[in-house]
Every structure is written in C-alpha cells, then in structure tokens.
Amino acid sequence: MKASTRTTYGSPDVITVKEVEKPAPKANEILVRVHATTVNRTDCGALWGKPFVFRFFIGLFKPRNSITGTDFAGVVEAVGEKITSFKPGDRVWGFDDNTLPSHAEYMAIDGKKPILKIPTGFTFEQAAASAEAAHYAYNFLNKVKLEKGSKALVNGGTGGIGSAATQLLKSMDIYVTAVCHSQYDERVRALGPDRIIHYDQGDFTQDHEKYDFVFDAVGKSSFKPCTRILKDNGIYISSELGPGAENLYLPFITSIKGGKKVIFPLPIDISKSLAYVADLAEKGKFKPLIDRTYSLDQIKEAFEYVNSGKKIGNVIIKMPT
Ligand SMILES: NC(=O)c1ccc[n+]([C@@H]2O[C@H](COP(=O)([O-])OP(=O)(O)OC[C@H]3O[C@@H](n4cnc5c(N)ncnc54)[C@H](OP(=O)(O)O)[C@@H]3O)[C@@H](O)[C@H]2O)c1
C-alpha cells in the first residue's frame, strides 16, 4: 500500500510517499481502508516535532509512527478477534492527537482509540474534516459557562478551530460575532454568525459590543486588548500560548484578582468531542468548512499550505480508492 512516511522530524522535505507493507490487524485492532484524511495543525506539529514538549508523547528522538497522520475516515476492512464493537463494512472516523499512521491507504488502529461510526449523510471527507479542529473547539468552549443569549466573539472565523467554534456556539443559541478577512465574508457568513467583523477594515478589540466570551481561535490577539470588549466577568481563551507564553500564567493571576479571566484549557477526551460533533452533524447543526483537497502524492504541498497559516477550515487528503 501507499503511505506518507518519514524517519526524522523536519519540514515536508523529510516526507517520502512510498509503497510499504499493508498492516495486518492484531487481536485488539481494526484494519481501516482510509478514504479521506486531513493535514491539520497537529500534523504540522508532529512533522516538525514542535513544540519540543510534543516529542514526549510522539517520540523523543524520532517519530514513533513513521507514517504521518492524526485523523481518518474510511471503511473497516477487518477486525481482530477481540473487537466486538465494529465489523467489516462499517464506515468509521477518528482522531488521535498523539498521531496515527493514517496518511496511508490502510491503517491498523487499536480498538480503544477514539473511533466512531460516520454520521448519517456525511461523506468521508466531511467526517475527516470534523475531527481535529472540532475537538479543540469543543474543548475550548465547554470550559466556559454560557447560556442562551450570551455573547461570544470568535477571532479567526475562517480557521479550522474558529469555523467549528462558530457553529458549536450557534448550536447553543449564543450570539456570535466572527472575525475574518473581508475576502472570506461569504464563507464565514454560511457558518451562521450573527455579525462579522472584517479584520482588514477594523480592529475587533475596538468593537462597541461587550462579550461574555472572547475566543481567539488563531492566537493573533492577546488578553490585554481584549479586556476592552469583555464584560466584567468575561472569559478570554486563546488557542495559542500568547506573547511570552502569558496564557499559561494569566489563568492563575486573573483567577486570584477576580473579574475578567483567562482560561487555558487542555483538550482531553477526544471520543466525547467526536460524539458531540457527530450528534450535531446528525441534527444538521454542524458541517465542517473544507478548503482544498490534495492527493496522497501531493501531501508535501498540503503540509506547506497548512503550515502557512492560510488554510480556510480543513485541508483534505483524498486516498486512491
Ligand atoms: N492549544 C491547542 O491545543 C491547539 C491545537 C491545535 C491548534 N492550535 C493552534 O490554534 C491555531 C488555529 O489552528 P487552526 O487549525 O484553526 O488554524 P488555521 O485553520 O490554519 O487558521 C488560520 C486562519 O486564520 C486566519 N487568520 C490569519 N490571521 C488572522 C487574523 N489576524 N485575524 C483573523 N483571522 C486570521 C487565516 O486566514 P487569513 O490569514 O487569510 O485571514 C486562516 O484562515 C493555530 O495557531 C494552531 O497552532 C492549538
């Protein structure tokens, strides 16, 4: 079978797409024929081995998985004798932020990893695109107490995380202002926000509205300027560490001081996030934003594009079928 492989950390130049042996599932494993996967920001972190702390989970000196990948959507080809929850022919999707050998035509995966049946009506591409960013979006939002009518601002409405967050917030009846470049107005409007601010035409931190929650889903702003648009007990969350890694210590300082707070959530429980997103998808309340589609042979280009920080939602790798 064909797979995207590497033996060392580095830029997309370390990747070789080549023929490797098709895996055989062990007793506790599921063999999946991968139909679609994505290249996402976690894949980029795993390719470069950055931040360094990530290597404690994915291989200190060299990547533990020589095949790249973190998410997949496909069809169960075979199951080991201990697997009872899936059978050949099931349409499945999943994600593991500590990497999976999913940039390949076939993948053997431990049955205990986060794997779910694909939501009804979803294509393989849509399922793969509903994993990584939606998992992070869900984990950032579920740490904040919001109720119907609360106001949230999402900076980076075009991003994988931002586009998922906008939809998750709208499904909770939250008033959402999304921030994006004016050229993407139409695509972001389709996600259902109540208002859009174009960052090329004005600074969102000067907005006249006050928000219960400011989510900087691209980490391009920071807590201090956002305090201006936060309500008295408003919450600020960024998907990045912020200047001087301030989002690591500001949660302690702001929780002691009281008032406007910073939270820096650690994304956990992938199965729970995927189940939540699948439920919304079944109800027609979540549809991932999809940007470009590449073939497996073009995966280096896909990595370069995703690493540029310019992708709109999710970048698909469509497998030969
Ligand atoms: N904390 C975590 O656990 C975790 C996990 C995964 C990812 N991340 C981080 O979260 C961030 C977002 O990831 P992602 O996959 O959602 O990113 P992404 O899809 O690459 O999103 C970047 C998007 O932001 C837009 N953008 C760039 N500058 C902007 C600005 N000043 N204001 C508004 N939008 C802007 C870009 O479009 P234009 O430039 O064309 O406007 C692009 O569409 C990344 O920095 C990533 O490293 C964190």
Give a brief rundown of this model.
This protein has helices spanning 41-48, 55-58, 124-128, 132-141, 160-171, 185-189, 223-226, 246-257, 270-282, 299-307, and strands at 2-5, 16-19, 29-39, 71-79, 91-95, 106-110, 115-117, 151-155, 175-180, 195-198, 211-216, 230-238, 261-263, 290-295, 314-318.
Helix content: 25-40%
Let me know the CATH homologous superfamily of the largest domain.
Medium-chain alcohol dehydrogenases, catalytic domain
Count of the separate structural domains = 2
Determine the strand fraction and express it as a percent band: 25-35%
Would you tell me the overall average pLDDT?
97
CATH C-level category of the largest domain: Alpha Beta
CATH architecture type of the largest domain: Alpha-Beta Complex
Bound molecules: NADP nicotinamide-adenine-dinucleotide phosphate
Provide the CATH topology of the largest domain.
Quinone Oxidoreductase, Chain A, domain 1
| Structural Rg | 20 Å
